[in-house]
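Lab notes, practical 5.
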Amino acid sequence: MEVRIDGLRFLRRGDCVLDVPKLVFASGRTTALVGPNGAGKSTLLRLIVALERLDAGTIRIGGEQVRPDRRTRGHVAFAFQRAVFVGGSVWHNLDLALRLRGVPGDERRKRAAGAAAACGVDHLLDRPAHQLSGGEAQRVNLARALSLRAPVTLLDEPLSGLDAPARRQLLHDLPGILRAFATTTIIVTHDRDEALRLAGDLVVLIGGRVHAAGARADVFGNPPDAECAAFLGYTLIPDGGGVLAVAPRALRIGPGEVTFNLTVEELLDFGMRREVWGRIAGVPATVSLPMGENDNAGRLTVSAPERAVRRYCG
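Output from the prediction step:
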């Protein structure tokens, strides 16, 4: 189902938290809702499921206006950032979520088993839910939401709180899991790399306002303003009265289409690769140094292809 937002305003203690004139989350697509902490991402998810009340505007799911009632919530599955379970086993928690949606017994067993297997937690079904590790809890939290097979699935920071190995594994598995359940999915994250890995569409929310929305390649490849570019990892370099924004990992050693002088501050040797950290016009920048390349100079000529550079007026 499509999620459509028109004229949305949400205030908290008189301050405008969200101001979204128009936004559409396409049916059957996975969209990453990204932005810095405090941008209003989680609040927007709560508004979509009617856990908060709008001050103005409308949200529609499949053409029906969102309301704080059983019908709206039946359209949505929500995995909160922090997994919360009731007492009992993992199986009991999955079954309870389905029972509260009125799913019959045989269908509950089928859905819970299928979601648990897809999320790699079928071996944990008999374990007490409060004994799960952080990574296990996040996978069970995801399985509980996906087992509902709701038309719209909302995931709030699904990789938060995980150690590096668990995060890396779930980041690898999650796109396939979401494809298997094929609902309209909105994932909140503040991590650019997570967003690019998990979603085909991006919405960039900064300061409660949408700065960009669309297909991943379009948004990342052509950010509409410098603030959006900075969040997406571009290096912003002063250029007269404006700014040049260089895409992440686009800088290379040597002259090229767009050339800069980099003042070397540090060389990081990772064994199989090396990176030079320094500054371009006072701005921190990083460039990969090919193995065998000499880095003795305090200054290096670096460059980026024209297609990887955006120009913004001051």
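Observations recorded by the TA: The domain at 234-312 is CATH 2.40.50 (OB fold (Dihydrolipoamide Acetyltransferase, E2P)). The chain has a mean pLDDT of 92.
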